[in-house]
Amino acid sequence: MQLNNYFGGSWQEGEGARYTAVLNPATGEELAKVRLSTKEDVDMAVKAAKAAQKKWALVPAPKRADYLYTIGNIMKEKKEHLSQVLTKEMGKVIEEARGEVQEGIDMAFYMAGEGRRLFGETVPSELQDKFAMSVRAPIGVVGLITPWNFPIAIATWKSFPAIVAGNTFVWKPATETPMMAYEMALIFEEAGLPEGVANIVFGSGSEVGTAMIEHPDIRVISFTGSSDTGRHVAETGGKHLKKVSLEMGGKNAVIVMDDADIDLAVEGILWSAFGTAGQRCTACSRVIVHKDVKEELEQKLVGAMKGLTIGNGLDESVKIGPVINGKALEKIQSYIEIGKEEGATLLSGGNRLTDGDFSNGHYFEPTLFSDVKWDSRLAQEEIFGPVVSLIEVANLEEAIEVNNSVMYGLSSSIFSRDVNKVFRAQRDLDTGIVYVNAGTTGAEIHLPFGGTKGTGNGHRDSGVAALDVFTEWKSIYVDFSGKLQRAQIDTE
Ligand code: UN1
């Protein structure tokens, strides 16, 4: 199978194009070849998007939304197929793949509902016989750059609000997960989405991503990915005066207080730290624990971790799948060494799995370090793998301070039965998402998703906030007095 650019409603075969292999991270099997697009390809995709945009913007929003209802229904019908492809391509276990596809379906119906809202504002004018309002206007052609860890959900977070708001888009999915983009293109076609509304290019961030950001006809870049790439997107976007929305890393913590339900906390930590093999921006990678319950938590966590089955995510009994590729494995391994050098205690895991069935995939044991210093590299840097650091604290104030000590601010959580502690924590934890008595993952699509500090640049995916990225506020004054009235001028 060969995956090609998709624009103007058709697949672009292209002579002499370069391709790279898409590999199943669980088995090493080649699933497809994906085209490495060029700057010229980006230009053609933008042309197709631009040619379609004016007409698309004139389609009334409730009618644009009808396409999203159809898309959501097709995704529902294809849910199992999409989940299977997702697990094969990305590695996450099938139960989580189904969850991710569901997230996309939810987004389709949620944003379809926005087609009948897209609320603006009417406000009184300071002049008599003058009407003032602000409406959300489409922006034009928007660029979407999405990561491999949530190849379908994050694509829907960006493309569906773009569609309902009257934009057309050029989308560059991660090179590791182009098959999900191919599947989405098939769904767009089946739904009858007009040609040129959805356009897809593949390839590297440095070549294709940069060409998108620099393209004069792309007005918005919505990016989710690593902090390093995000910084480049912001710099290049800034130079070209683009509206840039960034969603980047996390170093999310679960706080466990001395009055917490420890068994519940263990479940929350396991799910949010080791689900998706720790490859979520929202993954728990620090546990900040009150000293009085540290030992109990350690024992229970180590015990529970032994019960986590590792393997190919297509097997329903498997809880932890592979990580995405060899490079990710190397990075994780390097942090194991860093942790040891920094004097942390390795309580469980720490190794790559290479025997038998594991030999062709990229498997890493769930790993728990304890006695980690809050300011060590292990506790401060994003690892993006199944590695958790336990940090001991003496009280809530210290827990909050440690939580806030990292450069990121995506998600945080507190386990406590004390309502005063919980309310103090939700106010003082400096993250865009806070959970009480639940792990750090599992955000729902109708609430804003994003983080403070180094996680982003103030924009949000999901929820009604996503529309702020994909619309421009337009203020309109209608004077029906029949004479020239001047604001701010004292005419008395
Ligand atoms: C991500 O890891 O980038 O909140 C997205 C969650 C999921 C989305 C994660 N709903 O964990």
From TrEMBL:
InterPro entries from the UniProt entry: Ald_DH/histidinol_DH, Ald_DH_C, Ald_DH_CS_CYS, Ald_DH_CS_GLU, Ald_DH_N, Aldehyde_DH_dom, ALDH7A1-like
Domain of life: Bacteria
Keywords assigned: NAD, Oxidoreductase
Active-site residues per Swiss-Prot or TrEMBL entry: 247
Enzyme class: oxidoreductase
Residue ranges annotated for the Aldehyde dehydrogenase domain, each copy included: 11-476
EC nos: 1.2.1.3
Family to which the UniProt record says this protein belongs: Belongs to the aldehyde dehydrogenase family.
Oligomer status and interactors: Homotetramer.
Name of this protein: aldehyde dehydrogenase (NAD(+))
